[in-house]
Design a protein that fits this description.
Oligomer: single chain
Number of helices: 3
Number of domains: 2
Largest sheet: none
Helix content: over 70%
Mean pLDDT: 81
Strand content: under 5%
Number of strands: 0
Low-confidence stretches: none
Length: 74
């Protein structure tokens, strides 16, 4: 999501100057829509027990990996 947000920023200097060119405005609108869709899908509650188990397994793998990557980048 951070990559999409970064790429959707206008190529001109500020966000407020995105209205000057149609391409920057479209890029910013599409980027915002995709980021909102990702956030909605990421925080949607699972509907059954198997989905909760899947999120538990993904979390057990993703949290240590993300901490290691954050430590390495820092």
């Amino acid at each position: 999501m951070v990559l999409i947000l970064h790429l959707s920023f206008p190529q001109s200097e500020t966000v407020w100057s995105a209205y000057e060119t149609l391409g920057d405005l479209i890029r910013m609108a599409l980027g915002a829509a995709v980021c909102i869709a990702i956030v909605i899908h990421a925080f949607k509650q699972p509907k059954d027990a198997a989905a909760y188990r899947t999120w538990l397994y993904v979390g057990l793998a993703a949290v240590p990996f993300s901490l290691i990557v954050a430590y390495a980048v820092w």
